[in-house]
Amino acid sequence: MTTHLPRRSFLGVSAATLAGTALGASAPRMPLRAGAPAVIASGNGLAAVREAMARMQAGADPVVAAVRGVQIVEDDPDDMSVGYGGLPNEDGVVQLDASVMHGPTHKAGAVACIENIKNPASVALEVMRRTDHVMLVGEGAKRFALDLGFKEENLLTERARRAWLRWRDNLNPGDDRLDDDQLVIPAEDADGQPIGLLHQQPGMHVEWINGVPYTTGTIHLGAVNASGDVGACTTTSGLSYKIPGRVGDSPIIGAGMYVDNAVGSAGATGRGEAVIQSCGSFLAVRKMEEGMTPEEACLFVLRHIADRTKRRDLLDANGRPNFNVTMYALRKDGMVGSACMLPGGSYAFATAHESGVKRAPSLFS
Q: DSSP of 42-88, one letter per residue?
Protein backbone atom coordinates (compact mmCIF):
# COMPACT_ATOMS: atom_id res chain seq x y z
CA MET A 1 0.00 0.00 0.00
CA THR A 2 1.22 3.52 -0.66
CA THR A 3 2.27 5.61 2.31
CA HIS A 4 0.29 8.80 2.91
CA LEU A 5 2.25 12.01 2.52
CA PRO A 6 1.98 14.87 5.01
CA ARG A 7 0.29 17.84 3.38
CA ARG A 8 3.41 19.95 3.69
CA SER A 9 5.49 17.33 1.96
CA PHE A 10 3.37 17.54 -1.17
CA LEU A 11 5.33 20.64 -2.08
CA GLY A 12 8.39 18.43 -2.08
CA VAL A 13 6.87 15.46 -3.91
CA SER A 14 9.51 14.77 -6.47
CA ALA A 15 10.14 18.49 -6.96
CA ALA A 16 12.31 17.81 -9.97
CA THR A 17 9.53 15.78 -11.55
CA LEU A 18 6.93 18.50 -11.00
CA ALA A 19 9.28 21.20 -12.19
CA GLY A 20 10.19 19.22 -15.28
CA THR A 21 6.51 18.69 -16.05
CA ALA A 22 5.79 22.40 -15.65
CA LEU A 23 8.58 23.19 -18.11
CA GLY A 24 7.18 20.73 -20.61
CA ALA A 25 9.98 18.20 -20.25
CA SER A 26 9.01 14.67 -21.18
CA ALA A 27 9.78 11.95 -18.65
CA PRO A 28 10.88 8.51 -19.85
CA ARG A 29 8.29 5.78 -19.83
CA MET A 30 8.45 3.76 -16.62
CA PRO A 31 8.23 0.02 -17.29
CA LEU A 32 6.01 -1.68 -14.74
CA ARG A 33 5.73 -5.38 -14.06
CA ALA A 34 2.85 -7.36 -12.65
CA GLY A 35 2.79 -7.45 -8.88
CA ALA A 36 0.17 -8.56 -6.41
CA PRO A 37 -3.56 -8.38 -7.23
CA ALA A 38 -5.24 -5.29 -5.78
CA VAL A 39 -8.52 -3.38 -5.89
CA ILE A 40 -9.31 0.24 -5.00
CA ALA A 41 -12.66 2.00 -4.80
CA SER A 42 -14.29 5.08 -3.35
CA GLY A 43 -15.07 4.98 0.35
CA ASN A 44 -18.57 3.58 -0.19
CA GLY A 45 -17.11 0.52 -1.90
CA LEU A 46 -15.80 -1.78 0.84
CA ALA A 47 -18.20 -4.58 -0.07
CA ALA A 48 -17.47 -3.88 -3.74
CA VAL A 49 -13.68 -4.29 -3.45
CA ARG A 50 -14.11 -7.52 -1.51
CA GLU A 51 -16.45 -8.88 -4.17
CA ALA A 52 -14.14 -7.81 -7.00
CA MET A 53 -11.12 -9.41 -5.34
CA ALA A 54 -13.00 -12.66 -4.72
CA ARG A 55 -14.10 -12.80 -8.35
CA MET A 56 -10.58 -12.18 -9.66
CA GLN A 57 -9.25 -14.91 -7.39
CA ALA A 58 -11.87 -17.19 -8.93
CA GLY A 59 -10.59 -16.32 -12.40
CA ALA A 60 -12.80 -13.41 -13.50
CA ASP A 61 -11.39 -10.75 -15.80
CA PRO A 62 -10.61 -7.54 -13.85
CA VAL A 63 -13.17 -5.43 -15.71
CA VAL A 64 -15.90 -8.01 -15.10
CA ALA A 65 -14.86 -8.21 -11.44
CA ALA A 66 -15.07 -4.42 -11.21
CA VAL A 67 -18.58 -4.32 -12.66
CA ARG A 68 -19.83 -7.09 -10.38
CA GLY A 69 -18.31 -5.28 -7.42
CA VAL A 70 -19.98 -1.94 -8.06
CA GLN A 71 -23.28 -3.70 -8.70
CA ILE A 72 -23.57 -4.16 -4.93
CA VAL A 73 -23.66 -0.37 -4.53
CA GLU A 74 -25.91 0.15 -7.56
CA ASP A 75 -28.43 -2.21 -5.94
CA ASP A 76 -28.25 -0.53 -2.51
CA PRO A 77 -31.25 1.80 -1.98
CA ASP A 78 -29.48 3.46 0.97
CA ASP A 79 -26.67 4.82 -1.21
CA MET A 80 -28.29 7.90 -2.73
CA SER A 81 -25.44 8.58 -5.16
CA VAL A 82 -25.51 5.42 -7.28
CA GLY A 83 -28.12 3.32 -9.08
CA TYR A 84 -31.34 2.32 -7.34
CA GLY A 85 -32.19 4.96 -4.75
CA GLY A 86 -30.00 7.60 -6.38
CA LEU A 87 -31.18 11.19 -6.13
CA PRO A 88 -33.11 12.28 -9.26
CA ASN A 89 -32.78 15.23 -11.62
CA GLU A 90 -34.85 18.39 -11.23
CA ASP A 91 -37.86 16.67 -12.82
CA GLY A 92 -37.75 13.87 -10.26
CA VAL A 93 -36.32 11.36 -12.76
CA VAL A 94 -33.31 9.17 -11.94
CA GLN A 95 -30.77 9.31 -14.79
CA LEU A 96 -27.68 7.13 -14.50
CA ASP A 97 -24.19 7.20 -16.05
CA ALA A 98 -21.41 4.60 -16.10
CA SER A 99 -18.24 3.60 -17.92
CA VAL A 100 -15.88 0.62 -18.05
CA MET A 101 -12.47 0.02 -19.61
CA HIS A 102 -10.54 -3.18 -20.30
CA GLY A 103 -6.75 -2.90 -20.12
CA PRO A 104 -5.64 -5.82 -22.32
CA THR A 105 -7.74 -4.71 -25.31
CA HIS A 106 -7.88 -0.97 -24.49
CA LYS A 107 -11.60 -1.13 -25.23
CA ALA A 108 -14.16 0.94 -23.36
CA GLY A 109 -17.92 1.17 -23.00
CA ALA A 110 -20.21 3.76 -21.47
CA VAL A 111 -23.83 4.82 -21.05
CA ALA A 112 -25.18 8.23 -20.08
CA CYS A 113 -28.60 9.53 -19.06
CA ILE A 114 -30.03 6.02 -19.02
CA GLU A 115 -33.37 5.70 -17.20
CA ASN A 116 -35.20 2.81 -15.51
CA ILE A 117 -32.21 0.43 -15.71
CA LYS A 118 -30.76 -0.35 -12.26
CA ASN A 119 -27.26 -1.44 -13.29
CA PRO A 120 -25.76 0.98 -15.83
CA ALA A 121 -22.24 -0.41 -15.32
CA SER A 122 -23.41 -3.78 -16.61
CA VAL A 123 -24.94 -2.08 -19.65
CA ALA A 124 -21.66 -0.21 -20.25
CA LEU A 125 -19.86 -3.55 -20.11
CA GLU A 126 -22.16 -4.89 -22.85
CA VAL A 127 -21.55 -1.77 -24.96
CA MET A 128 -17.84 -2.60 -24.75
CA ARG A 129 -18.35 -6.30 -25.38
CA ARG A 130 -20.96 -6.24 -28.15
CA THR A 131 -20.47 -3.04 -30.13
CA ASP A 132 -17.87 -1.04 -32.00
CA HIS A 133 -18.99 2.06 -30.10
CA VAL A 134 -17.87 3.56 -26.81
CA MET A 135 -20.94 5.43 -25.56
CA LEU A 136 -24.71 5.10 -25.87
CA VAL A 137 -27.01 7.71 -24.34
CA GLY A 138 -30.58 8.26 -23.27
CA GLU A 139 -33.33 6.33 -24.98
CA GLY A 140 -30.86 4.53 -27.25
CA ALA A 141 -28.94 3.20 -24.25
CA LYS A 142 -32.18 2.05 -22.64
CA ARG A 143 -33.37 0.26 -25.79
CA PHE A 144 -29.98 -1.45 -26.08
CA ALA A 145 -30.29 -2.66 -22.48
CA LEU A 146 -33.87 -3.89 -22.93
CA ASP A 147 -32.89 -5.78 -26.09
CA LEU A 148 -30.30 -7.64 -24.01
CA GLY A 149 -32.85 -8.58 -21.36
CA PHE A 150 -32.20 -5.95 -18.71
CA LYS A 151 -35.29 -5.29 -16.62
CA GLU A 152 -37.04 -1.92 -16.77
CA GLU A 153 -37.99 -0.69 -13.30
CA ASN A 154 -38.72 2.43 -11.30
CA LEU A 155 -35.49 3.56 -9.62
CA LEU A 156 -36.97 6.36 -7.51
CA THR A 157 -37.21 5.06 -3.95
CA GLU A 158 -39.51 6.61 -1.37
CA ARG A 159 -36.54 8.13 0.43
CA ALA A 160 -35.16 9.70 -2.76
CA ARG A 161 -38.62 10.94 -3.77
CA ARG A 162 -39.08 12.66 -0.41
CA ALA A 163 -35.62 14.22 -0.72
CA TRP A 164 -36.55 15.55 -4.16
CA LEU A 165 -39.86 16.96 -2.84
CA ARG A 166 -38.03 18.69 -0.01
CA TRP A 167 -35.53 20.17 -2.49
CA ARG A 168 -38.37 21.37 -4.74
CA ASP A 169 -40.27 22.85 -1.81
CA ASN A 170 -37.19 24.82 -0.76
CA LEU A 171 -36.53 26.30 -4.20
CA ASN A 172 -38.60 29.41 -3.52
CA PRO A 173 -39.18 30.33 0.13
CA GLY A 174 -41.95 32.67 -0.94
CA ASP A 175 -44.10 30.14 -2.78
CA ASP A 176 -47.16 28.37 -1.42
CA ARG A 177 -45.55 24.95 -0.86
CA LEU A 178 -45.02 23.82 2.73
CA ASP A 179 -42.09 21.76 4.01
CA ASP A 180 -42.66 18.49 5.86
CA ASP A 181 -42.15 20.18 9.22
CA GLN A 182 -44.80 22.83 8.38
CA LEU A 183 -47.62 20.43 7.60
CA VAL A 184 -50.73 20.72 9.75
CA ILE A 185 -51.28 16.96 9.36
CA PRO A 186 -48.12 14.81 9.03
CA ALA A 187 -47.44 13.28 5.65
CA GLU A 188 -48.07 9.56 5.16
CA ASP A 189 -46.24 6.90 3.22
CA ALA A 190 -47.81 4.56 0.66
CA ASP A 191 -49.16 2.36 3.48
CA GLY A 192 -50.79 5.27 5.29
CA GLN A 193 -48.12 5.45 8.00
CA PRO A 194 -46.83 8.88 9.17
CA ILE A 195 -43.42 9.86 7.83
CA GLY A 196 -41.05 12.35 9.37
CA LEU A 197 -38.07 14.25 8.05
CA LEU A 198 -35.24 12.47 6.32
CA HIS A 199 -32.30 11.45 8.47
CA GLN A 200 -28.82 10.47 7.42
CA GLN A 201 -28.47 6.72 7.05
CA PRO A 202 -25.26 4.65 7.23
CA GLY A 203 -23.66 4.42 3.81
CA MET A 204 -25.35 7.58 2.47
CA HIS A 205 -22.58 9.76 1.04
CA VAL A 206 -24.44 13.05 0.91
CA GLU A 207 -24.15 16.64 2.08
CA TRP A 208 -27.13 18.04 3.96
CA ILE A 209 -28.01 21.72 3.47
CA ASN A 210 -31.05 23.05 5.34
CA GLY A 211 -32.36 19.53 5.68
CA VAL A 212 -32.03 18.76 1.96
CA PRO A 213 -29.56 16.05 0.81
CA TYR A 214 -27.22 16.84 -2.06
CA THR A 215 -24.70 14.54 -3.68
CA THR A 216 -22.01 14.54 -6.33
CA GLY A 217 -21.17 11.03 -5.18
CA THR A 218 -20.26 8.06 -7.29
CA ILE A 219 -18.45 4.76 -7.00
CA HIS A 220 -15.22 4.14 -8.88
CA LEU A 221 -13.45 0.77 -8.77
CA GLY A 222 -10.13 -0.19 -10.31
CA ALA A 223 -8.71 -3.72 -10.25
CA VAL A 224 -5.48 -5.47 -11.27
CA ASN A 225 -5.00 -9.23 -11.25
CA ALA A 226 -1.89 -11.31 -10.54
CA SER A 227 -0.98 -11.22 -14.24
CA GLY A 228 -0.93 -7.42 -14.24
CA ASP A 229 -4.07 -6.98 -16.34
CA VAL A 230 -6.15 -3.96 -15.35
CA GLY A 231 -9.85 -3.10 -15.53
CA ALA A 232 -11.94 -0.29 -14.07
CA CYS A 233 -15.47 1.01 -13.74
CA THR A 234 -17.21 4.19 -12.59
CA THR A 235 -20.97 4.42 -12.03
CA THR A 236 -23.22 7.18 -10.66
CA SER A 237 -26.62 8.79 -10.48
CA GLY A 238 -24.85 12.09 -11.00
CA LEU A 239 -25.36 15.50 -9.49
CA SER A 240 -28.53 15.61 -7.44
CA TYR A 241 -31.43 17.64 -8.93
CA LYS A 242 -29.37 18.27 -12.09
CA ILE A 243 -30.73 19.75 -15.29
CA PRO A 244 -32.22 16.81 -17.23
CA GLY A 245 -29.64 15.54 -19.68
CA ARG A 246 -26.63 16.68 -17.65
CA VAL A 247 -23.71 14.28 -17.96
CA GLY A 248 -20.80 14.36 -15.53
CA ASP A 249 -17.34 12.86 -15.71
CA SER A 250 -18.25 9.26 -14.78
CA PRO A 251 -19.13 7.95 -18.28
CA ILE A 252 -16.40 9.94 -20.03
CA ILE A 253 -13.28 7.93 -20.78
CA GLY A 254 -10.23 9.85 -19.55
CA ALA A 255 -12.26 11.99 -17.18
CA GLY A 256 -14.06 9.89 -14.55
CA MET A 257 -12.19 6.69 -15.44
CA TYR A 258 -9.21 5.60 -17.51
CA VAL A 259 -7.10 2.45 -17.95
CA ASP A 260 -3.71 1.83 -19.57
CA ASN A 261 -2.70 -1.80 -19.19
CA ALA A 262 0.99 -0.88 -19.28
CA VAL A 263 0.56 1.48 -16.33
CA GLY A 264 -2.65 1.15 -14.32
CA SER A 265 -5.99 2.88 -13.83
CA ALA A 266 -7.52 5.96 -12.23
CA GLY A 267 -10.96 7.32 -11.43
CA ALA A 268 -12.68 10.21 -9.74
CA THR A 269 -15.65 11.22 -7.62
CA GLY A 270 -16.86 14.69 -6.70
CA ARG A 271 -17.40 17.71 -8.94
CA GLY A 272 -17.54 16.10 -12.36
CA GLU A 273 -17.27 19.31 -14.37
CA ALA A 274 -13.85 20.04 -12.85
CA VAL A 275 -12.63 16.53 -13.62
CA ILE A 276 -13.85 16.71 -17.22
CA GLN A 277 -12.14 20.04 -17.81
CA SER A 278 -8.84 18.59 -16.58
CA CYS A 279 -9.06 15.07 -18.11
CA GLY A 280 -8.38 13.99 -14.54
CA SER A 281 -8.12 10.21 -14.78
CA PHE A 282 -6.05 10.27 -17.98
CA LEU A 283 -3.67 12.76 -16.37
CA ALA A 284 -3.28 10.61 -13.25
CA VAL A 285 -2.34 7.56 -15.32
CA ARG A 286 0.17 9.59 -17.32
CA LYS A 287 1.78 10.84 -14.11
CA MET A 288 2.14 7.27 -12.86
CA GLU A 289 3.72 6.37 -16.19
CA GLU A 290 6.29 9.10 -15.56
CA GLY A 291 7.18 7.59 -12.20
CA MET A 292 4.81 9.05 -9.61
CA THR A 293 3.19 6.80 -7.03
CA PRO A 294 -0.60 6.54 -7.21
CA GLU A 295 -1.00 8.96 -4.31
CA GLU A 296 1.42 11.47 -5.83
CA ALA A 297 -0.42 11.25 -9.15
CA CYS A 298 -3.75 11.94 -7.43
CA LEU A 299 -2.34 14.96 -5.63
CA PHE A 300 -0.85 16.25 -8.89
CA VAL A 301 -4.24 16.10 -10.62
CA LEU A 302 -5.93 17.89 -7.73
CA ARG A 303 -3.32 20.67 -7.83
CA HIS A 304 -3.85 20.88 -11.59
CA ILE A 305 -7.60 21.28 -11.04
CA ALA A 306 -7.13 23.83 -8.25
CA ASP A 307 -4.74 25.97 -10.31
CA ARG A 308 -7.23 26.09 -13.17
CA THR A 309 -10.33 26.90 -11.15
CA LYS A 310 -10.97 30.57 -11.96
CA ARG A 311 -14.68 31.19 -11.35
CA ARG A 312 -15.24 33.24 -8.21
CA ASP A 313 -18.29 31.26 -7.17
CA LEU A 314 -16.13 28.12 -7.08
CA LEU A 315 -13.47 29.66 -4.81
CA ASP A 316 -13.45 30.23 -1.06
CA ALA A 317 -12.18 33.32 0.73
CA ASN A 318 -8.60 32.05 0.38
CA GLY A 319 -8.88 31.53 -3.36
CA ARG A 320 -9.04 27.75 -3.05
CA PRO A 321 -11.72 25.54 -4.62
CA ASN A 322 -14.83 25.33 -2.45
CA PHE A 323 -15.79 21.94 -3.91
CA ASN A 324 -14.36 18.49 -3.41
CA VAL A 325 -12.87 16.00 -5.83
CA THR A 326 -11.39 12.68 -4.80
CA MET A 327 -9.02 10.81 -7.11
CA TYR A 328 -8.23 7.09 -6.94
CA ALA A 329 -5.31 5.40 -8.68
CA LEU A 330 -4.00 1.87 -9.06
CA ARG A 331 -0.70 0.86 -10.57
CA LYS A 332 -0.01 -2.29 -12.57
CA ASP A 333 2.30 -3.57 -9.83
CA GLY A 334 -0.52 -3.52 -7.26
CA MET A 335 0.21 -0.20 -5.52
CA VAL A 336 -2.89 1.92 -4.83
CA GLY A 337 -3.41 5.48 -3.61
CA SER A 338 -5.96 8.23 -3.30
CA ALA A 339 -6.23 11.93 -2.45
CA CYS A 340 -8.98 14.52 -2.10
CA MET A 341 -9.15 18.26 -2.67
CA LEU A 342 -10.62 18.97 0.78
CA PRO A 343 -10.47 16.83 3.95
CA GLY A 344 -12.96 14.06 4.49
CA GLY A 345 -12.41 11.72 1.54
CA SER A 346 -11.74 8.02 1.93
CA TYR A 347 -11.06 4.97 -0.19
CA ALA A 348 -11.66 1.26 0.10
CA PHE A 349 -9.02 -1.28 -0.85
CA ALA A 350 -8.54 -5.01 -1.05
CA THR A 351 -5.54 -7.26 -1.58
CA ALA A 352 -5.30 -11.03 -1.48
CA HIS A 353 -4.75 -10.79 2.28
CA GLU A 354 -6.63 -7.76 3.63
CA SER A 355 -9.27 -5.16 2.93
CA GLY A 356 -10.49 -1.98 4.58
CA VAL A 357 -11.23 1.72 4.29
CA LYS A 358 -8.58 4.41 4.72
CA ARG A 359 -8.80 8.17 4.89
CA ALA A 360 -7.39 9.89 1.82
CA PRO A 361 -4.86 12.72 2.28
CA SER A 362 -6.10 16.13 1.20
CA LEU A 363 -4.46 18.79 -0.93
CA PHE A 364 -5.82 21.57 1.28
CA SER A 365 -6.49 21.57 5.02
A: ETT-HHHHHHHHHHHHTT--HHHHHHHHHHHHHT-TT-TTSSTT---
- Select which of 216, 218, 235, 293 is catalytic: 218
For residue 343, the model assigns a pLDDT of: 94
The side-by-side arrangement of strands in the sheet containing 325-331 is: 257-260, 264-270, 325-331, 336-340
Buried b (16+ CB within 10 A) or exposed e, 228-255: bbbbbbbbbbbbbbbeeebbbbbbbbbb
CATH number assigned to the domain comprising residue 300: 3.60.20.30
Longest dimension (CA), the chain: 69
Evaluate whether 212 touches 164 at the Cβ level (below 8 Å). Answer: no
Looking at residue 34, its pLDDT comes to 77
216 is catalytic: no
Q: How far apart are CA 66 and CA 223, in angstroms?
A: 6
| pTM of the entire predicted model | 0.85
pLDDT, position 214: 75
**Residue 209 domain-assigned?**
no
Alpha carbon 190 to its chain centroid, in Å, reads 32
Tell me whether residue 349 is in a domain: yes
How far apart CA 308 and CA 122 sit, in angstroms, is 34
Q: In the chain, where do the E strands start and end?
A: 38-42, 95-102, 107-115, 135-137, 207-209, 212-214, 219-224, 230-236, 257-260, 264-270, 325-331, 336-340, 346-351, 355-359
Among 268, 275, 264, which residue's Cα sits nearest to residue 218? 268
Tell me, what DSSP letter sits at residue 103?
T
184 within domain boundaries: no
The domain in which residue 232 lies consists of: 34-155+214-359
Cα Rg of the chain, angstroms:
20
Tally of domains within the chain: 1
Residue 231 domain flag:
yes
Residue 44 CA to its chain's centroid (Å)? 10
Residue 261: what pLDDT? 97
| pLDDT tens digits, 179-194 | 555 555 555 555 555 4
Question: Which residue ranges of the chain lie beneath pLDDT 70?
Answer: 1-31, 172-212, 215-217
Q: What is the pLDDT of residues 81-92, one digit of tens each?
A: 899 999 999 999
